[in-house]
Amino acid sequence: MDKLAIAGGARLDGTVRISGAKNAALPILAAALLTEEPVVIGNVPHLRDVTTTIELLGRMGVEATVHEGMRLEVDAARVTECYAPYDLVRTMRASILVLGPLLGRFGHADVSLPGGCAIGARPVDLHVAGLRAMGAQVVIEDGYIRAQARRLRGAHIVLEQVTVTGTENLMMAAVLADGQTILENAAREPEVIDLAKFLNTIGARVSGAGTNTIVIEGVERLHGGEYNVLPDRIETGTFLVAGAITGGRVRAEGTRPEDIEAVLGKLREAGAGIKTGPDWVELDMQGRRPRAVDISTAPYPGFPTDMQAQFCALNAVAEGVAAVTENVFENRYMHVSELQRMGAVIKLQGHTAIIHGVERLTAAPVMATDLRASAGLVLAGLVADGETVVDRIYHIDRGYECIEEKLQQLGGRIRRLV
Ligand code: UD1
Description:
The chain is built from 14 helices and 26 strands. The protein has helices at about 20-30, 50-60, 85-90, 100-105, 125-135, 165-175, 190-200, 235-245, 260-270, 310-315, 335-340, 370-385, 395-400, 405-410, and strands at about 5, 15, 40, 65, 70-75, 85, 110, 135-140, 145-150, 155-160, 180-185, 205, 215, 225-230, 250-255, 275, 280-285, 295, 320-325, 345-350, 350-355, 360, 365, 385, 385-390, 415. The strands form seven sheets. Strands 23-25-1-26 form a four-stranded mixed β-sheet. The chain has a four-stranded mixed β-sheet with strand order 2-15-17-16. Strands 4-5-3-14 form a four-stranded mixed β-sheet, with helices on one face. A hairpin with a 2-residue loop joins β16 (about 275) and β17. The longest helix has 13 residues, at about 235-245. Uridine-diphosphate-N-acetylglucosamine (UD1) binds next to α1, α5 and α6.
């Protein structure tokens, strides 16, 4: 199993090119199921979760061709089965995103329940309730969601809780439904907007994405089209924290600063100089040690839960004491015990981690448990004395494209052990 070995102590300095957003590429790939004409999706990141999605679509009969520069041509003209098996869904919860498109276009879908996962129960009850409101018959049996509907009909759905993939699934189901669907308390994440833009590119009529009320006018059919995925705001934030934690300077290019306002605000509070342009962000710590910053996660435009672990690492070596509160997921603190093994002083009190910054962390063998937790451990490794070995990095490969090459370019001393 691959590992990453990181020799701590190098101050990062340089430029990194940001990849396309995983969390936009996955729903957009799933949305390709909605049309019989080919679609071309550009700026797709080369990630395990993308490969898993292509495999999942492939098992349904969808043809995907990779063109130069990670442009993916997806052709769902001949879908042979509307089925997402457990062996794939369990490796990637986002597989649930095929449920809405399959039901919308073909009138039936069998999708395995994702089951428990490392970061809490993460149910999909709101996806199911929304589809039922649109007239679908849904039964849960043998670990599968089995859904049927001759044609979905538009509905007024108030989501009980803000859910990103829930909003996306219902939006995709609604584009081919009969009549108008209104989604209230919808997620406002930039990736939700990106999906809506893609859907409109192929003929859907979606408005309001980016606000908490999304309106979808159902159409009879969709056509083909081309679309480029937006840049990954979480990857951007992670590399900026890498700069901040090492006292260095990092310029992230090919990104959108407006999508990470909450993160940039916290980095400024930590003492970083931040400059932005239309498609770049530059962070300069000028050799300073970061100051502790309190974090409280929330749906967009709040501080993203997907950046929580990285800020735990930052606070672990910061000057002062920070309270980091996780409000989106229960049990998203697996990185805490690993950081403690590296000398971090962290006390967990319910949903809050109280972190007393220490001057130095020390290298230790640590284990990645989920995607963002692993990113937090890599960041801690960058500043720990000695060589930190992070095991089970397949979690990182799910969501970060070439993380070791990109960190090396910035001067990080990191290598992959295979
Ligand atoms: C998405 C992102 C993930 C990010 C998360 C929160 C993708 C592929 N993944 O995950 O990276 O961490 O948003 O920003 O885009 N909930 C329910 N019932 C449901 C659905 C959700 O109770 O039917 C709860 C969840 O348990 C969680 C909260 O709602 O506590 C938010 O989860 P949700 O936004 O759905 O996360 P994902 O869409 O799975």
